[in-house]
Amino acid sequence: MAIPLSADYASMLDAQDRLAHFRERFVVPDPELIYMDGNSLGRLPKATQTYARELIETQWGTRLIRGWNEGWFTAPERIGAKIARLIGAQPDEVIVADSTSVNLFKLVVAALRAQRGRTRLVTDDLNFPSDLYVLQGAIELLEKGHRLDIISSPDGIHGPAAEIQASLDEQVALLTLSHTVFKSGYLYDMAELTRAAHSVGSLVLWDLSHSVGAVPVDLNAAQVDLAIGCTYKYLNGGPGAPAFLYIRRELQERLGNPISGWMGQRDLFNFALDYKPAMGLRQFLTGTPPILSLSLIEPGVDVLLEAGLDALRAKSEQQSEYLIQLWEAVLKPEGFVLNSPRDVRKRGSHISLGHQEGLRIDMALINDMQVLPDFRAPDNIRLGLAPLYTSFSDIHTTVTRLHQVVADKLYEQYPHEVPIVT
């Protein structure tokens, strides 16, 4: 059924939105700027602003070194336990540490060491390129005859789930995939692929970077072994905020951290010369945590827990359906193609629209139309829907301005050269 295309209809949807008030909890200094890139960097929560002042002026400025015994030392576990509630894990199965890539490296090497005699790693060509770099580096470092098998997507949009399952055998040590893939937003069936990998004795590692905070995840129900994820997208933890890792409780003593460091030492202030790993997940810490950036993750997680992931997912699905209907009516005739799954059950919370002039259209949106999306080669304009603060009016305005950029050929003033950051 066709939807009304007017701005009034978008305003009506906003008036009916029971989560709309959460937008007021974020810093929105320019109401004319439409922010559609929360899937790359989330907005700044107002609570984070307040907490940052307290963290710097009081905790650091006044309490000084005493802060370590007043919450700093336990922050990785405390915030990890809150993230665990967003991804269906136990409190002692998630910890905040390092970057996503470093956590991936630690877990991949730990898994390969534990899976002796198995030589294959399996992933797909929709995974983060940075994840593939880490896998390649781990294989080169170990020098144990491992090989990386990259299964190709049939269309560059949908994950090759059937082909992955067909490739699994008793030589697979680890299957690792992005739960929500970064270009198209395709959403894997986590439980189905995890079962398939376990049936041949493989461990499974999921990258949750484009899922956590936007898509309900239940790692325990799916019996997932390992997972990683960032905190600066839908968790609104801030640029470069530390990442998190998950290890199923039963595996924590079986796996060892390949980057041993004093924060993972059993008795770190004993200063013994021989390393003995801490019990449980803390052994996967390495160096001193960056307390300021780590602590500032917490307010954003608290807002998500307050709103509830089921409610956020329901709004995300409604918004992505609305955006796709507007694409079909307004943008498809202008040459835009849908580079995301049409089935709402198979996509995360961002929509990719392709156009042969995608890069220059993206630049015109940013510089002339006050719309901030991002661009991913070869032609994807990614529109991130962060249901905590993205409004239906934002979506309508974005589509209207996209249409204007193409109809008026505003993109023609921009060069074809790709900027450093897109």
UniProtKB/TrEMBL annotation:
Keywords attached to this Swiss-Prot or TrEMBL record, sorted alphabetically, are: Hydrolase, Pyridine nucleotide biosynthesis, Pyridoxal phosphate
Catalytic activity annotation: 3-hydroxy-L-kynurenine + H2O = 3-hydroxyanthranilate + L-alanine + H(+); L-kynurenine + H2O = anthranilate + L-alanine + H(+)
Instruction: Cite the EC number.
Output: 3.7.1.3
A molecular function GO annotation = pyridoxal phosphate binding
Which EC main class describes this enzyme? hydrolase
Please list the GO biological process terms of this entry.
anthranilate metabolic process; L-kynurenine catabolic process; L-tryptophan catabolic process to kynurenine; NAD+ biosynthetic process; quinolinate biosynthetic process
Keyword Hydrolase included in the entry's annotation: yes
SUPFAM superfamilies on file: PLP-dependent transferases
**Requisite cofactors:** pyridoxal 5'-phosphate
- Functional pathway: Cofactor biosynthesis; NAD(+) biosynthesis; quinolinate from L-kynurenine: step 2/3; Amino-acid degradation; L-kynurenine degradation; L-alanine and anthranilate from L-kynurenine: step 1/1
Q: Which residues bind pyridoxal 5'-phosphate?
A: T100, S101, F128, P129, S130, D131, D207, H210, Y232, W262, T288
For this record, an example GO cellular component is: cytoplasm
The keyword Transferase is annotated on this UniProt entry: no
Residues that the record marks as modified (N6-(pyridoxal phosphate)lysine) are K233
In terms of InterPro entries, this protein maps to: Kynureninase, PyrdxlP-dep_Trfase, PyrdxlP-dep_Trfase_major, PyrdxlP-dep_Trfase_small
Q: Which HAMAP family does the protein's record reference?
A: Kynureninase (MF_01970)
Family under the similarity heading: Belongs to the kynureninase family.
**Quaternary organization:** Homodimer.
What job does the chain carry out? Answer: Catalyzes the cleavage of L-kynurenine (L-Kyn) and L-3-hydroxykynurenine (L-3OHKyn) into anthranilic acid (AA) and 3-hydroxyanthranilic acid (3-OHAA), respectively.
The identity of this protein, by name, is Kynureninase
Which organism's genome codes for this protein? Answer: Ktedonobacter racemifer DSM 44963
